């Protein structure tokens, strides 16, 4: 290699580039904008919002979905780096799981048993299971494109984390419309929707994040 070529190569390597974190942040902003457009087209803000945000059950919904999105995003960023251990990278996911477990326990203690099944079924279970993944789709697409700059050892696992991140954001948006506030509904139907987004992320990540 000529000396001039070597210098040019080193100079190119020295140019500042966006970090994975900033790249993912920009991607989430774009994907989030797309999700907001879908929300405006398909749904509407629940009557009484934002005043209802002081209700404990509604606070729990947002505590779970937002902490899930944050924890899954952190996990995804760790998993797209070579040598990452999935179990260690995913430890922050215990936070939303803990919030949900406390909410379900409180529901079972303080709500009559005759209300458990109706609260679990809710009013719009099918809508939740469908619309959360729909609103998560632009976020997932943007997140996977941003995470392509990484080099994960397990692309499907990293993709699953991206799917969980997108699902957390989609679930947060849907919660602004949802009138089913029981933690049992959150566990069953938001859980199903998040399972779908996570599985989709894993399938797409196997291809998109492979290097």
From TrEMBL:
Top-level taxonomic group: Bacteria
Keyword field contains Transmembrane helix: yes
Entry keyword annotation includes Transcription regulation: no
Membrane-spanning parts: 24-46, 58-80, 92-110, 122-145, 157-176, 188-209
InterPro entries: NrsF
Keywords assigned: Membrane, Transmembrane, Transmembrane helix
Protein name listed in UniProt: DUF1109 family protein
């Amino acid at each position: 290699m000529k000396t001039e070529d070597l210098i040019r190569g080193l100079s190119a390597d020295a140019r500042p580039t966006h970090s994975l974190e900033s790249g993912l942040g920009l991607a989430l902003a774009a994907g989030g904008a797309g999700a907001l457009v879908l929300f405006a087209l398909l749904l509407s803000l629940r009557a009484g919002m934002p005043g209802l945000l002081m209700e404990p059950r509604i606070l729990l919904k947002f505590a779970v979905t937002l902490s899930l999105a944050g924890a899954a995003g952190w996990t995804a960023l760790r998993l797209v780096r070579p040598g990452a251990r999935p179990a260690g990278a995913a430890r922050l996911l215990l936070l939303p799981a803990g919030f949900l477990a406390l909410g379900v326990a409180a529901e079972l203690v303080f709500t009559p048993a005759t209300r458990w099944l109706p609260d679990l079924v809710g009013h719009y279970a099918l809508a939740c299971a469908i619309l959360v993944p729909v609103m998560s789709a632009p976020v997932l697409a943007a997140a996977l494109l941003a995470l392509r700059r990484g080099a994960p050892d397990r692309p499907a696992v990293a993709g699953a984390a991206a799917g969980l991140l997108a699902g957390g954001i989609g679930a947060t948006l849907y919660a602004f419309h949802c009138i089913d506030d029981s933690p049992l509904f959150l566990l069953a139907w938001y859980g199903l929707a998040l399972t779908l987004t996570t599985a989709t992320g894993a399938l797409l990540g196997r291809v998109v994040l492979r290097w």
